[in-house]
Amino acid sequence: MTRAGEGTLPDPLAGLADAAALWRHAGGVIDCGRGHLVGIVNATPDSFTDEGRHFGTDASVAHGVALAAAGASVVEVGGESLRFSQPTPVAEQVRRVAPVIARLVREVDVPVAVDTFTPEVAQEAIAAGAVILNDPTGLRDDAMLRVAADGGVGVVMTHFFGEPKVRPTSFPDVDVPRTVVAWGQEALPRAAAAGIPPERIVIDPGVGLGKSPAQDLDLLHRIHEVGRLGRPVFVPISNKKVLGAVTGLAAADRLAPTAAGMAWCRLRGAAIFRVHDVAFLRHALTALEAMLAGEPEAWHDVVK
Questions:
Q1: Is 5 among the domain residues?
Q2: Residues of the domain holding 279
Q3: 270-294 mean pLDDT
Q4: Domain presence at residue 169
Q5: 4: Cβ–Cβ under 8 A, 6 or more apart, which residues?
Q6: How many domains does the chain have?
Q7: Which CATH number fits the domain that encloses residue 65?
Q8: In the chain, what are the helix, strand and coil shares in percent, each to the nearest 5?
Q9: Which residues, 6 or more positions from 298, have their beta carbon under 8 angstroms from its beta carbon?
Q10: Is 302 part of any domain?
Q11: pTM for the full model?
């Protein structure tokens, strides 16, 4: 099938075989042959999307429990927003995330992750029971490498132009998908040398992290290229700025484009999606997986 002036359209199923890999973490394994949702618990007063609605230990735990009940395969807790602002003191980050993680590991039956680029916070979170580490800076800090290796945790390895919480003044003039693949080709062996084997790593190409909306769109359009690294692809698609840039919608109104982005990335081989609204997106992903497989996980008796 072609359009006038275009070559052959990309195969919408290309890359799915690359997603059929296991992701090992400190508590077990996740089969990335099917799609998964990571539910976000922002244990912060200043998060981009929920603006502190789940701040405080009790509120954060309740939200994490609700995300797991709605179908999240992983519940992820973060104690510092990536807003362009002053860093949150380490002790305050630990105070926010460690009690939440300690309670969630007792109250949900899915793995609990921590989202942090601070080694001391990661260490305390792992001690509290986190079995997955999502480091937005891609383990560039040697101390974080050691924490991840010693903890035996699963790792979300993220590509990031620039520094966390620092507003970029310009964007690198590069082919972003190719740059992400080249970065991963160096980052994976570095992690392995530190004691983190590839089967414990998934790749986050870093949508929205030091990239312009146009670069983010190109990265999403060519997300299948990230699968060349041979590890499952993890996409934090929820409410991203690029979705607002192409629709004109505010962050709180981007559920429909989030679902569209998730579906596109899944069809291009990505397996794991970091999202806020698990309940809605779980239904979308369940229907998509049924259509991909030609059969559902379960048939339901409905009137119409």
A1: no
A2: 16-293
A3: 96
A4: yes
A5: none
A6: 1
A7: 3.20.20.20
A8: 45, 15, 40
A9: none
A10: no
A11: 0.90
